[in-house]
């Protein structure tokens, strides 16, 4: 009995350590790879355009304040920044890094929330998908030079998860308080 209780404590301890928050300052980076909407689908199941492929516009917000809150999270949609745009491409390569610094306090995860729409010249934009790309903040590297990228994974799609896919990879590393907030939140082209 005592032995199995010790095993229980060991497993419970491992569980707790897996949920431990990490103190800032640190930087969270997501590298958005490729959006695959090969069926040219809108959220309602219709096609983006009748005679051409989707005209993708993506705006987003890397939520480190309330990553588990319901959509749209801690920041109003109107304040989100543009991440990507491309006309007439259902499977665009995005290849952009979105980052955010956490200067003070601690954090267990971050959530890149993304809104994808199809732009039309004559009518209003149509909703394609809402994505949430969750990053666990654990095993944080001591600096950028030591930070390795995760394996590629998929963001969670809200409306058509079986038919639309967005891949990303991530890394998290400590920075100094001087570096924190520079570069500011938003998307940067990869160099
Ligand atoms: Ca089009
Ligand atoms: Ca269009």
From TrEMBL:
Protein name: Lipoprotein
Keywords for this protein: Signal
Annotated signal sequence range: 1-21
């Amino acid at each position: 009995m005592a032995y199995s209780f010790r095993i229980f404590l060991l497993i419970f301890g491992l569980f707790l350590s897996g949920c431990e928050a990490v103190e800032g300052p640190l930087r969270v980076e997501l590298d958005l790879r490729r959006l695959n909407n090969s069926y040219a689908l809108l959220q309602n199941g219709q096609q983006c355009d009748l005679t051409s492929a989707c005209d993708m516009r993506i705006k987003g917000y890397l939520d480190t304040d309330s990553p588990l809150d319901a959509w749209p999270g801690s920041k109003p949609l109107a304040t989100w920044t543009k991440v990507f745009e491309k006309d007439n491409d259902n499977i665009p390569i995005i290849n952009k890094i979105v980052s955010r610094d956490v200067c003070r306090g601690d954090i267990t995860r971050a959530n890149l929330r993304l809104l994808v729409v199809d732009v039309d010249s004559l009518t209003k934009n149509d909703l394609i998908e809402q994505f949430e790309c969750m990053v666990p903040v654990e095993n944080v590297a001591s600096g950028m030079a030591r930070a390795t990228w995760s394996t590629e994974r998929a963001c969670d799609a809200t409306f058509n998860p079986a038919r639309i896919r967005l891949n990303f990879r991530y890394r998290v590393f400590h920075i100094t308080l001087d570096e924190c907030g520079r570069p500011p939140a938003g998307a940067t082209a990869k160099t």
